[in-house]
Amino acid sequence: MAQAVVWTGRILQPAALSALEGLAIVTVTRIGERNDWYAEAATADAILVMGGTFVTGDEMDCLPRLCIIARTGIGVDRIDLDAATRRGILVVNTPDGPTESTAEHAVALLLNLC
């Protein structure tokens, strides 16, 4: 079975990389000032985007192999869901990912006030 190509705009934690080992080839590039990341991700089957990255239909058209857009964290408001649906691209996110760290931060702020 051929390995999938996953593109991301940030360095992944070692645990995440080890989970993908043997399943995918992970390509990491920095998002440029012109936000032309899609040129770097042109051969990707899946992209892993952060909250600040917009993914529109125009970018999706530049990614002919794209099957999955994964958004780290809550919300997919910067991803054109209608465009993804028309192209048969699955969009996923991790809505519960930052829950624990958000709660810990809130408790730390409360303790600071004491």
Describe the structure.
This protein is α/β, with parallel strands linked by helices and 114 residues long. The chain has a single domain (4-113), classed as NAD(P)-binding Rossmann-like Domain (Rossmann fold, 3-Layer(aba) Sandwich). The chain has 5 helices and 5 strands; from the N terminus they run βαβαβαβαβα. It has helices at 14-20, 37-40, 57-61, 81-86, 99-113, and strands spanning 4-8, 24-28, 46-49, 68-71, 90-93. The longest helix is centred in the last third of the chain and has 15 residues, at 99-113. The model has no long low-confidence stretch (mean pLDDT 87).
In short:
The protein is globular, with a radius of gyration of 16 Å.
The percent range for helix content is 25-40%
Biggest pleated-sheet summary: 5 strands, parallel
**Mean residue pLDDT:** 87
Q: How many structural domains?
A: 1
Low-confidence stretches: none
What is the CATH T-level topology? Rossmann fold
CATH architectural category: 3-Layer(aba) Sandwich
The secondary-structure element order is: EHEHEHEHEH
Please provide the count of β strands: 5
The number of helices is: 5
**What is the overall shape?**
globular
Indicate the structural class. Answer: alpha/beta
Give the CATH class: Alpha Beta
Percentage beta strand = 15-25%
- Reading side by side through the largest sheet, how are the strands ordered? 2-1-3-4-5
